[in-house]
Write a structure and sequence with these properties.
35% of the residues lie in helices and 22% in strands.
Amino acid sequence: MKIALALLFHRTREGLRLTRPKAQMPMQYYEPNFIGEALVVLDRFGERAKVLAGGTLLGPHLRVNPDAADALVNLKRITELSEIRLDGDALLVGALATARSIARDPLVTIHAPLLAAAASSLGAPQLRTVATIGGNVLSTHHAADMACALLACDATATVAKLDDEVLTVPVGQMLSPAFAGLRAGSLLAGFRIPIAVESVDRKGRPLQGRPLPRLSAFEKMQTRQAFELALVSVCASVRRQPDGGVAEARIALGGAAQTPIRAIAAERAMAGGDMSDARIARAAHAAADVDAEPCDDDRASAAYRRQLVRTLVTRALISIRRTIAEGA
Ligand SMILES: Cc1cc2nc3c(=O)[nH]c(=O)nc-3n(C[C@H](O)[C@H](O)[C@H](O)COP(=O)(O)OP(=O)(O)OC[C@H]3O[C@@H](n4cnc5c(N)ncnc54)[C@H](O)[C@@H]3O)c2cc1C
């Protein structure tokens, strides 16, 4: 949070001031204690209000565009937005949960290991301490790590509005290029990740006679490890049949299209089959040549990203196969 505040404020003799040209109206700053309070402020200022979470993206944006908002609503006091807990057959992760807390939470490591792996890969430790999962999804960056993991987990987002209406939106829909962003006056409250609670005991061990737990692998390629977004990332998970075959595969790609996407053709190539080299190769080719629609940019060419998709999908599926062979 310190990083974000330093980007937004400057020190004067009287104390801290929001960084804004003097001629303009001062930006109003709010720290509500409850979701309802935040929604009242957001409703009052409409399009002219900005929600501040970790501030790793909003901070630099407001520094360059100081007149982009009339009100800043810092969510840090709303403790329920940082909660991570089980609710029946789902894991609930508050929008304000940081990458660091997600990576370390035992509930996440047991029930949504892909999300834990994606969170722990994000940026550097300083960034993980402040960067939130809500901000990551709303950044709509094509290589947003936690967004990609949520997509592979079939998660839904919960959006709160002043009229007590709570909207549930599939994360896939929220990440689609057609999504117009959250309506003014609304707040992203958190995510609901479906889990097979009944299939594992408290320590994550499979229970006798119950469906086998989903196995997953996260792969990421970046030019350097800290302070750099992925060129391409892959979140893969497999639900097995008792005979060792694949009942269902979920594969999400980051950095391979305009937004994080599900690799539907690759998932179909894996479903109902075994985990042989040939099938894995077919799935990797499908991901690279059918699902991926990468762009050229100053960090990598589209052709290179396509090759990375092929390599990382192969690696992820082989890693899952190895886990199965080790007796998971
Ligand atoms: C140096 C550097 C390295 C990075 N490395 C990575 C990386 O490896 N992987 C990766 O995925 N990302 C990376 N990022 C991007 C960024 O840090 C993450 O996407 C982060 O999770 C954004 O979250 P935040 O809490 O800082 O969002 P903020 O900057 O606070 O907010 C981002 C946007 O979302 C809105 N918002 C946030 N929360 C809510 C809410 N609850 N309701 C409504 N609106 C909301 C804000 O108004 C703003 O428009 C990096 C960024 C930097 C600067």
